[in-house]
Design goal:
Blueprint lengths: L3 H8 L8 E21 L2 E22 L4 E6 L9 E8 L2 E8 L6 E5 L4 E8 L2 E16 L5 E11 L3 E13 L5
Length: about 180
């Protein structure tokens, strides 16, 4: 897990103090769909085929400051992102997802704003790839103690490689075991 010192230094450039911190458990449900157009009468209908359905649990640290809520967690060893730390920032209806990879995968900064397109660069050890996100839905309700739910529905296009629809639900539950 990335340390508080690394968060302050690398992400907030040294100028950050949180007002609340809690250990939480996350249940992360992710579904990814391919999309096709199929003829129907004189027009076409968009169809979706479930390509990936995954649910993982992981521990996280919840922080809040004057402006935002943050969830910091290491990706599960059951995913291809196992050497990666993710920081979710929730602020004014926007969800930012920053992934910091340790070696193999690379890093990426994604912003989810309902109804908007965000283009970012996915940095890998062999170079960068353009990543386009079109966000269909952003919902979150997370209380001041870190408990709640985040729902994202978005289309992702990875430069010339793939285009998929994603539905991501993250449930955060206070971890009482660490008290």
């Amino acid at each position: 897990m990335i340390t508080e010192e690394e968060i302050r230094k690398e992400i907030f450039k040294g100028d950050w103090e949180y007002k609340y911190k809690a250990d939480v458990d996350l249940v992360i449900s992710h579904k990814q769909y391919s999309q096709d157009l199929e003829p129907k009468g004189g027009s076409f209908v968009r169809t979706e085929t479930l390509e990936e359905d995954m649910e993982v649990m992981t521990e996280a640290v919840f922080y809040s400051d004057e402006n935002s809520l943050y969830l910091v967690y290491d990706e599960s060893v059951t995913t291809e992102l196992q050497d990666c730390t993710t920081i979710l920032t929730l602020n004014e209806g926007i969800v930012h997802m920053n992934r910091y990879a340790k070696e193999i995968l690379g890093s990426v900064d994604m912003a989810f704003t309902e109804g908007e397109k965000h283009v970012t660069r996915y940095q890998t050890p062999i170079g960068g790839i353009n990543l386009e996100l079109v966000t269909n839905k952003v919902e979150y309700e997370v209380n001041d103690e870190g408990e709640g739910k985040i729902t994202l529905d978005y289309n992702i296009k990875l430069e010339g490689l793939m285009s998929r629809r994603n539905r991501l639900i993250i449930e955060s539950i206070r971890n009482e075991r660490k008290k």
